[in-house]
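#struct-help
A.M.: can someone run this one for me? Single chain, 295 residues.
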Amino acid sequence: MKFPFSRRPDLLSRDAAGETWLAAVIAALCFIACLAAVGASAGERAAHGWAGRLRAEATVQVRPRIGETGDAAAARATETLAGLDGVEEAEAMDRKTAEALLRPWVGETALADLPIPHLVTVRLDPDAPASAVVMSRALAEAGLDATVDDHRLWRGEVERSATTLSVLAFAVFLLTALAAGAAVVYATRAGLQAQRQAVETLSLTGATDAAIARLFMRRYGLLAAGAGAAGGLAAALVVALLRGIGGEGGLTAALPVAWSDLLLILLCPMLAGATAAGAAWIGSFTTLGARRSDR
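D.P.: on it. Structure tokens below:
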């Protein structure tokens, strides 16, 4: 099947410069670039989700007074925090829940003798959350010795990690695009050398350097677009497999893949074709100009 705009007879012979291998290289580079873009999107989605959950929650450690049990102190803290503006819900964490959180870190044998702090988990109003200062003041006024952790430090780390991941993914995408462009420039120069007779014939018949460059630009642009579609399709199959295996949350909560990530892959053939066309144009003019100066 031919493209509608490729019905004219091709003036350049096929596979004169190993176009099959070039297409394979471009397809592999596009596969890597697509996975990098999807990984960046999923990583940023996960980081923003974590930051949002951390922003909507706070943890309070309560230290009981002399003659007061930890459970009683936690109950008083829960009642105090639940009545604050900006707090949707406050709930004391029982020992069983705290042990479940600590078990992966300290092991089963150490839990029996381990002094576990009395904690209160607070769910904040996402539109107007109560600040750590407000909660600390309310607890102090209630006569409670407590420390409020609004997870601000963790939010900053998560957001910085998301930024770093996005920068690294963009760097991978940029490097693959440069590699694809360099491969096309090399292939264009090799094609001009391999098809020297055809180029000379075109020049003798009055074809300008721009017209010859357009032939190579069209050839390698279409080749790269097709190879980019193949690489993008392979990446789409991998993304669909990860999304299908993982169910609602993707393969893992650390890297939640969404069906919308497939939209990023649709850009791959266009970007590959445009990159290759531009590289072929530059490579053609550079090579033709060098040949003119050698004469």
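A.M.: thanks! Residues 104 and 111 are 11 Å apart (CA to CA).
D.P.: also worth noting: The first helix runs from residue 19 to 55.
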